Amino acid sequence: MTLLSSAQNWWRKKQSKASAEQLSDEQLLLSFIAETNASFIEILMQRHNKALFHFLLSLSDAQTAEDIAQQTWLKLLENPERYNKQQAAFRTWLFTVGRNQLFDVLRQSARWQWQPIEETANDDLPAYNDELHFTEQENLQQRFNQALEALPFAQREAITLQLEGFSLEEIAAIIGEKPETIKSRLRFARKNLKQQLEPTA
C-alpha cells in the first residue's frame, strides 16, 4: 500500500467517523445492527458511559459500578435488537438495563439497601421546581457528595437520575414507578439535601 493510498484510507475513516458522530443514538444502534461495526457502539459509549457509571456508582461501589457498566454494554453488543425505540429513548433504556443488572447483583450479594420512605406529599416540602441555593464553600462538592450518599436508597437513586438530566417521566420509566411517586421522592431528597447543605447559623 502506497503512502497516498494509506492517507486516503485514513481520511475516509476520519470522515466516516465524523459523519457517524452526527447520528442520533437510535441511528447509531440501527447502523451497528446493519453493519456490525463496533465503532457505532464506541460512539454511544463515549456519549453515555460516564453518566451510566456515575449513576451506578451512586448506588454501589466503584468496582461494582464498573463491572455493571461493562456488562450493560456487552448485553447491547450481544443483542442490540432488545432495544425498542417505541418504548423509550436509548439513554433511558440503557440506564434501565444497567439498573436492573445492578439490583440483581445487590440482591445476590446481600447488599440490598432498600429503605422504605414516606411517599405522601407534604405541604411543608419545597416545590418540585424550587432550586436549592447553597452558600459557596471550598468543600461544597465534598459535602454534597456526603449528603447524597446519606440519602435513603430510593431518594438517592431518583435525585441522581435527575442530576444526570433525565426528566420526571424518564426517571419513572427507568425505576418502574409512577411519576407522582418519583416526584415525591425527589421532593424529599431535595429537602434532605437542602437541610444538610444550608449554612448553619
Automatic annotation (TrEMBL):
Question: Which keywords does UniProt give here?
Answer: DNA-binding, Sigma factor, Transcription, Transcription regulation
A molecular function annotated in GO for this UniProt entry is: DNA binding
Q: Which residues form the RNA polymerase sigma-70 region domain?
A: 44-111
Annotated CDD domains = Sigma70_r4 (cd06171)
**Pfam families in the record:** Sigma70_r2, Sigma70_r4_2
Q: Which stretches make up the RNA polymerase sigma factor 70 region 4 type domain?
A: 142-193
Provide the GO biological process annotations. Answer: DNA-templated transcription initiation
Family of the protein in this entry: Belongs to the sigma-70 factor family. ECF subfamily.
The record's section on PANTHER family has:
RNA POLYMERASE ECF-TYPE SIGMA FACTO (PTHR43133), RNA POLYMERASE SIGMA FACTOR HI_1459-RELATED (PTHR43133:SF8)
UniProt-recorded name of the protein: RNA polymerase sigma-70 factor (ECF subfamily)
